[in-house]
Amino acid sequence: MKKILCFFAFLLLFFVGCGDDKAKVGLKDINKDAVYKSENICISLPEEYRDCQIDAYSVSDNYIYFVCQYSESGKDSEHETFLLGRSTKDGNNSTILHYEGDGETGNTYVIDQAIGCDKDNVAIRYYKYSTQPEDPEDYIEVDSKEYIAVFDALGNKLYETETKEYYEDIFFLKDRLIFIDSHKIISADIKSDASTEVSAVNYECIFEGGSENLIATSSAEGKMLYTYIDPVTLKETERFESEDIYDPGYMVFKGNKENDLITIDEKNINGFDPKTGNILQLCDIEYSGVYWGGSVTDIKQEDDGSFYVSVEAYSSNHEMSSKLIKCVKITPDKVKEKEIVSIGCLGIAYSDVDELIANLNSRSDKYFYTLKEYKENDNPDDISNISEFDKDITSKHIPDIVMCGRYGIGADYNLNKYISKGLFLPLNDYLENDPEIDADDIFPSLKEACSYEGNIYTVIPSFVVKTMICKEKICGDKENISFLDFMDTLNEYPNSSAFYNATREEIYSNFLSMEENPFFSVTAQRNNFDSDEFIEFLKFIKDIPNDYIIDPNEFDYEEQLTNAYDKDESLFIMCEIGAADSLAYYEKLFLKDDSKAVGYPNNRGFKGYIRSNQYTIGISAKTKNKDAAWEFVRYFLTEEYQDSITAFVPASMKSFDKQAKRLMNTDHYDWFYMYDTVTVEPIDQNDVDKVRDVILSSGGNSYYDENIIRIIEEESETYFAGEKTAEEAAKMIQSRVSIYLKE
């Protein structure tokens, strides 16, 4: 476990939008000695071990060591061993050095970490579990022991010891293992097995220094003390004073002789010399386009200035694994000035955006992509970041690329309200002319939802369809319904409720949050709240309770819900279709009958409304770097990205078909239902066709305009309280919303 130490940041790149001139990162703004290119080191395992996943790396002066779990074919997969391998520094010429354990004994070996290298010897930390009991409930009885083993470059085990207690850190240097916890430091000689122990109670953190010393920190009277400790005798040798304090922004690793410690934050790899207090920027992570994609667990600086960085990250199958990245220094004479391409994201940008920005920055000699996130504040009522986002969009400093996140403050932001004002770039030509993107492969309904007056202005990489579903017999031949159709259906079933345990807020947010709902459109600036339909809506919603009658968290809630729909006591389900199996989920678990999606009441013939799942992305019409901006946006429509979407509807119809095929080829289906996992038959082509039909028959965009909803709620209360008639309340809503839309 790496400890955290505070230094001070020293390089800040300011992010600006595009104005009349192209914004640039001038060479005076960066340290040309700190620019790198990064590459993933891929170990090519021997053929018989190709299916193994590498769990940890350690880099010595001459080799890359790696360890991975291994289960022999035909044997119980629970009884695993681990392999220790070695490759050259470029990842080639790999060989397996050591095979730990025997599957026949029933013991399982689990890798914890590669502690590090001393010369060309490597230390590994692992656990050994005794024979696993058959009953999973007995796992707690399994005997487990932690071991530290040291191997040489040929795979010979030089030393092994069982640890009797937990240690926060273990270092390997000068043929010694250094064990550290909050109370003591132990130095064990791997050749003689002799050990030395001293108290650590006066130290706050202890690191391994590049000069082969231990460096302990302690604070006194607001100052930081760095104490050098000899790893053999554990005696203090030198002490230095600094003003620095602890901060969670830095991770600290072993440095070299010039910089005893190396720190990493979001923007830089820094070298730090406790003796002088000097901080040296070694690598500008952001400008170089380096992307870790996980948690850095170790770093080794080479004599030529390059770095090997071990990263713990989730693999494509959502299992934790390790990867190795090499950062190679670019000579200062090859570092060029770059033009800024600014990205403004309302809400959180996820790892796919971070990785894309890093890749673009890493391979581009002309453009530097920067990200500004307008994040949610701790106070949910504080909309200052949304206001700042609005201000930036409507100013001359609008970001080149504008994004709205699906969750948090960007979830219901109506980006379309600015399209009619000419703030965004039409994307039709880019889509049609991109050699790798088939514009005809994008769901037509999605393209319509991203369009205004025939032009496509936004990109939605993945989405859900918000809709209402019911049994086929409920709505008969109707493929979609207007609000009056909805009310007629309720009149046909006078003893049934429209929904099971719905609240008034749910009705508001689902019926009125759609850009193309029957009563208003923000983009088109129309509203007709004084219509007969809306008056009927007010009369309908008056009887809907403000709070849940039944707690949805109750143990038997899903059983009650299922019974209500099975017996036609409730008619419609408000839901989201998020993948090829979505309708089947509701049909097989809740309705217990053939279902159909009829959409929320609308006059456009839609079976549902499209809602972005993760991002809505547009390009500013003012950008001076249109092609560079498109290079960012286009990635989200590539086959690589679209095929990676598994839990939602991808923009690509081909990727949707691949998703459906995977689901249909599944032997069985496990769904979480009634606090348990139930197994059902896999979906078939009919299930897929019904979902595809709903997607193709949907349109519009789902946006929750809180200001309009607030007006409706406030004025509706006067009707619910008997102070006004439904007609009077509707007229007041019409007036107030008209004023709001004009503003």
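That was protein one. Protein two is written in the same sequence-then-structure order:
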Amino acid sequence: MAKETAAQRIQRIKLEKNGLDVIKDIHRYAISGEDVDSEDIDRFKWYGLYTQNKNLQASDDETLYFMLRVKLLQGSMNLKQMRVAAGISREFARDTANFTTRQSVQFHFIQVRDLPEIFYRLKSVGLTSIFAAGDVPRNVVTCPVSGVDKNELYDVREITKEVNDYFDGNIDLVNLPRKYKVGISGCAKHCMGHEIQDLSFTAVEFENDRILFDVSVGGGLASNNQFAHHIGYVDASKILEVVKSVSVLYQAQGLRENRRKARLGHLITAWGIEKFKAEVEKSLGFEFEAEKTQEYTPYAKREHFGVHESKVDNKSYVGCAINGGGIGAKGLEDLADILQKHGATTIKTTTTQNFVAIDVPSDATASFVEDLSAISIDANPSPFKARTLSCTGMKFCKFAISETKDTAVALAEHLHETFPDFNETVSISVNGCPNSCAHPSIVDIGLIGSKFKNEDGETIAGFELILGGTLEGDKSRYGQKTKLKVEPKDINNTVEKIISSYIKSSQNNVGLYVRDLIKDGEFDINNLK
């Protein structure tokens, strides 16, 4: 009998036991202490759990540790939730806690024995890890300042809640071909990143103040390396209907023979966008509206940093940057204390691993910002700290080749010290492997984990440099590989040379400048001025 493929194995596992039913086994393993069956480990993903790299384990430590991802619905985290998350981090996760590019928070060093208590604490404050991973609809991303931004095109909070409610533990969507990512945004700066979602809805203003939503499908990075296709516009009242139609279609028709070819975008490629659109419209019973193509904000400028007056009287929202999403137990505790001290209650995380405090009393913003600065959280961050992303990296991720979190923090700090007066937007990503969790292909300067031989002929773990990516609607482009392999010790100086060269040039767009550094597919850093 032929050995089953990875795709066949996962399909069998999902059919033999509903992923949501593994919660019974989680409790059993926690009580009995028995070894976790390898197939149940895969099912643990339905509750946001991944096994982690053993790099930081002592040689005599045989414990099976997990990363736990917890969804923050609409990116929201209130004071009680922050304090519970801080407690989980401190008691069960060795003080780890990181905000993700999908507006979630994740912890490391989680043991099975502690999961019942962790799940109980999460549920007590309205948090959940259900469908935070696995072949299911993931956390719906949205604009963090929806409902408070005076410039927003549409308040999508209620719509996003309806979609989240539809997805929440939906038994009909428990076995999708692969992960499935949806975004909804009424943001005037288009911060949600619709171009890389499987399905997205982006508010667009037309004549007579009419607001429609751009429907885009099939976007993704890594194996599904394509920008989403625009298929038309719908009224806000139709968004949930479209979500249901596309979700059911993907569940029924998605490709399951190859795990690397199973995202929604792969189905669209196989069918063609016109057939896919026609099938969705047939299911809906109406056609998408056709309107002019929208102009979108460039990726590096999609942010909400600083102090802004809210729609709510006497309230302001404050956009803040942290280092590569790293917040930790103490950071969560300190942040909750500062919010409470100044009469604020809630933060909203962003798709760039930062957050916005959304209800700060306007007369307290100056002292609020000052207190945040004391714990290294910046409301007016340097351009480098503001938009430097990093994935989990080799410390915890089994797929990572290179260390990322510390590298990203050190790089941002080095660039700020070297160019303290630099004030242009620039996006940077430090990604530990080719899987694109930190979106290295859509930033100005991307670093992708890679193994190569150094000058002494030794195989080392470092990074490959890619340049010139961005998101900007139909002007989006992927970064180009430079073929330059960089040792970890040379990262800071390499990026410094690129920024220095840009400053000396006569150009006024970092992304276009770095893209043009690659000539005929070749890049030579020694040619930089």
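The chain has four domains: 6-124, 150-284, 304-381, 386-527. Keep this in mind for the problem set.
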